[in-house]
Amino acid sequence: MARQVQFLAKLRVTGWETKTSKLRLRQEKVIIDQRTRHYQTILSKGITSIEYERFREKGIDVKIATDLIVGAVDNQYDTAILVSSDTDLIPAIDWIRRRYSKKVEYIGFSIIDETGTTKDTKPSQALIGRTDIQRVLVRSDVEKFVQKPLI
Fold it and tell me: Which listed residue, of 68, 98, 122, 146, carries a Cα 20 to 30 Å from 29's Cα?
């Protein structure tokens, strides 16, 4: 989270408008069943579920969708630049493109996790297919904005 805050601060200094939402502590539960790797071994030990807490950003997709629509209606842009891989935004994207003939540029990320913990970042193929312009940023594109290595 600290690296993300640092990254967003550097973007703001260079003139980008960034929007975030408050992080909320959420209780999450994973049910152990056939979708879980090694589920039979886990179940044999009497574990049927795993509960944990995690911080989640809530409501940012609604804020972005609102900005896309209001900006289109108020003719605030010709091309919206979307730096999000949230496919929940597709209905808003489709609406502004169809109703107001606005263009949408999708910026996604493709960053390989070199630690081997499978935290690779991949662009959204669904958003690539629903936008007018697509850019995929790799590690070297992003590293100049952060002091510590990504992932």
Answer: 122
